[in-house]
Design goal:
Blueprint: E1 3-6, H1 16-34, H2 38-52, H3 62-69, H4 77-81, H5 90-99, E2 104-109, H6 113-123, E3 127-132, H7 133-137, H8 144-154, E4 161-165, H9 168-177, E5 181-185, E6 196-197, H10 200-209
Parallel strand pairs: 1-2, 1-4, 2-3, 4-5, 5-6
Helix pairs in contact: 1-2, 5-10
The chain binds magnesium ion.
Length: 210
């Protein structure tokens, strides 16, 4: 049985859930706390996000942002409260249903564990393993070493895994460079390459032909 690894955001679910928490909920809490309107709060919070930057691990840590921005309450309540915003792509549902009987499915994501846990619950009970680069490996991106660790945990060789995701560098190139059979999902259909897919139903077609 082959292992098929999926990226989460942009691949199985859309970006709406994370975007709402980072782009609206956190600025909203900031606005209430500091007595400014939402627009001003967004300006200030986004400026703070830029100050830290995605190359540092704390950028991904909601608890860190609650402390840094002086926000009230328990940050863990936020990802749970927004569960209803998680939208699973219809083709993802179809592909997971079809593939789960003939493959071992895993999630390999750059999302923190507290978000990822809820996302996986909403997608469904398909996965043997769920890997979070920032939470499990304190890594800010899905690089070669992330995929090597996954292979190691699964106890397989790189060529026994398929990975699919929507980021050309961190899903496609990084996985492919260690010998994983990787596919780049471009839902816009703008790029076409040998290993480019427009949907996850296209992944099913590829695997049937193989
Ligand atoms: Mg993605």
């Amino acid at each position: 049985m082959k292992h098929i690894s999926f990226d989460m955001e942009g691949t199985l679910i859309d970006h709406g859930y994370s975007e709402h928490i980072w782009g609206t909920d956190i600025p909203q809490l900031y606005a209430e706390k500091h007595g400014v309107d939402l627009e001003e709060a967004r300006r200030r919070v986004f400026h703070e996000y830029d100050q830290v930057g995605g190359a540092r691990p704390e950028w991904y840590d909601v608890g860190y942002w609650f402390r840094r921005l002086g926000l009230p309450g328990d940050w863990r309540e936020l990802p749970e409260r927004r569960r209803g915003l998680i939208r699973v792509y219809p083709d993802a549902k179809i592909a997971l249903e079809a593939l789960v009987s003939e493959s071992l499915l895993v999630v390999s994501s750059n999302t923190i564990r507290e978000f990822l846990k809820i996302q996986v619950e909403e997608v469904g009970d398909y996965f043997t393993h769920v890997f979070s680069a920032p939470s499990d490996y304190q890594s800010v991106k899905k690089d070669q070493s992330f995929y090597r660790r996954i292979i190691e945990v699964l106890g397989i060789e790189p060529n026994e895994m398929i990975h699919v995701g929507d980021h050309y560098t961190y899903d496609y190139l990084a996985a492919q460079s260690i010998g994983v059979e990787a596919y780049h999902l471009d839902r816009t259909g703008k790029t076409r390459g040998e290993d480019t897919l427009e949907s996850l139903t296209e992944l099913m077609e590829r695997l049937e032909k193989a």
